[in-house]
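Quick start: read one record
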Amino acid sequence: MATEVRVPTLGESVSEATVATWFKQPGDAVAVDEMLCELETDKVTVEVPSPVSGILDEIVAKEGETVGVNALLAQVAEEGKAGAEEPRPRKTADQDTIVAGGGEESKMVDVMVPALGESVSEATVATWFKKEGEAVAQDEMLCELETDKVSVEVPAPAAGVMGKILVGEGETVAAGSKLAEISAGASAAASAPAPAAKEEAAPAQSEAPRKDVEDAPSAKKAMADAGIGRDQVQGTGRDGRVMKDDVARAVAAASASTTKTSAPAPAPRAAVPADDAAREERVKMTRLRQTIARRLKDAQNTAAMLTTYNEVDMKAIMDLRNEYKGVFEKKHGVKLGFMSFFVKACCHALAEVPEVNAEIDGTDVVYKNYVHMGVAVGTPQGLVVPVVRDADQMGFAAIEKKIAELGARARDGKLSMAEMQGGSFTISNGGVYGSLMSSPILNPPQSGILGMHKIQERPMVVGGQIVIRPMMYLALSYDHRVVDGKGAVTFLVRVKEALEDPRRLLMDL
């Protein structure tokens, strides 16, 4: 008996979708809730799980076809009851036993994309650390995935030999999809010949361009409506297939280029001298870098961003730190830095000026009765902002420990999605790179970000006398839609006062 797999409800006002990718083929074993295929609509991507365990018996709607709600996609037969016309045995990839060349028994184990975090549905395969035919140990890192926010390492689920790699570097994969197979229990010597044969055949295959890639029907219609040719659109679907979103991007790019009439058009790339072109290097932006670029530009386009400045005399903090840093480290096992003072000072100021800790949600202003402090960290992959949750409830030692832990995890690319979500205010320290003054960009949807800068000795007038003081410029960028100028200036003054006289933090002044 076969169980039908049908198109699920696609959402309000959405009546059809395009079959983008089949993760399983007829004859493959499937588990209940295992992803069978992915559908694309005008608004979202929808994954279709298997309703039962068994064998994928028939695919009715092929990749690239448009299907309506409740249309039949495929049929799944219970194990042992598949159609008799398919004599080949069905084997579950993670259970069936095979015999390696040396007579040893092994079983195929699937390598799947792990959970990528809340609101993250896909990732890009950045690097494969293993090749087909190489031996792997259990929990050894096989590949690294890049999402919009973090890098995710995929460990080997079992020891054995790397089998077929299904997704190459640079390709996009959905959460829960299959990346590769491992021949568990096999030895590299027994399994190496097959990958070698594949490698020899690869050049011949790559020489012949693919001619059977069928663009999504919705994309064809969109190209016809927009009056643009296939050569004007860069396909991002499987095997270069053009999807509807690709057409929308191409139309938007063409529209933007035609509106730039106020200034002379830049010289085309072809005009670059040959000797200069030979010394250039073109590198595709990582997903993280693309997300950083998009979010920062969105912040500029959306928020009414304004920056106010002040300066702080760091002598009191430096004296206090020098006096107690040895005792502090001995007791708490962590060094006393400047960040804990700034976090405490900001928490103190946010309590007095709560709108700096708020955000806009539609026509509402959401005031946060807590402080989840984002601390911007520069990494080799780009800027990330891990969050110290409930920083207003933490002491100096707890803050220093948490910042040190998050900073190390950020630089190693080990941050989880949860550790970078939910921040209500951010501190960015450009001073570690030597910045004397800058205007930080908001981290949306937050309404405020404090920029720290380089500590520099300058002549200051104190008590009618000119003295040399270690000074730092502070910058508060804020969303003027939520925060008035008075509130922003008051916030920055309170931070300055708390830093110049840390006793105020202890006395809540």
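The domain at 92-203 is CATH 2.40.50.100 (OB fold (Dihydrolipoamide Acetyltransferase, E2P)).
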